[in-house]
Amino acid sequence: MQQHVVDPEMCIQCSACEMACPLKAIDCIAGRFCVDFVKCKNCAKCIEDCPTGACDCFIEVATPFTQMEQAEWTSVPTSNLPQS
Ligand code: SF4
Ligand code: SF4
Asked: Considering only CA atoms, which residue is closest to atom 2 of ligand 1?
């Protein structure tokens, strides 16, 4: 499945995405903007308002990363799919 996330290497912590999200699906945790996969309905409003493109990030995952896991990223993991 695809998960919508924020790329921490492109994010400038402006909080525009958090304010733009009509579902309050983005939270700032320890200075990192993290998308709640349960709340997010992929409406793309945060992507439209993000000045850097950091919000326009989707990764293929086996199970979604929690917001607490995302808060520890220094870069976006390519995936957590099992290695074949
Ligand atoms: S895509 Fe829509 S619902 Fe999901 S985090 Fe962005 S603004 Fe919120
Ligand atoms: S709008 Fe973009 S640059 Fe601003 S906090 Fe959100 S992801 Fe980071």
From this structure: 43
Q: 34: Cβ below 6 Å to ligand 2?
A: no
Q: Residue 54: which CATH number? A: 3.30.70.20
> What is the C-alpha to C-alpha distance for residues 58 and 19, in angstroms, rounded to an integer?
20
For residue 49, which of 7, 17, 22, 12 has the smallest C-alpha distance?
Answer: 17
Ligand 2 center–CA 52 separation, angstroms? 7
* pLDDT, tens digit (0-9, with 9 covering 90-100), for 28-71: 999 999 999 999 999 999 999 999 999 999 999 999 999 999 99
Judge if the beta carbon of residue 55 lies within 6 A of ligand 2. Answer: yes
d(C-alpha 17, C-alpha 50), whole Å: 6
Query: What is the residue range of 26's domain?
Result: 2-71
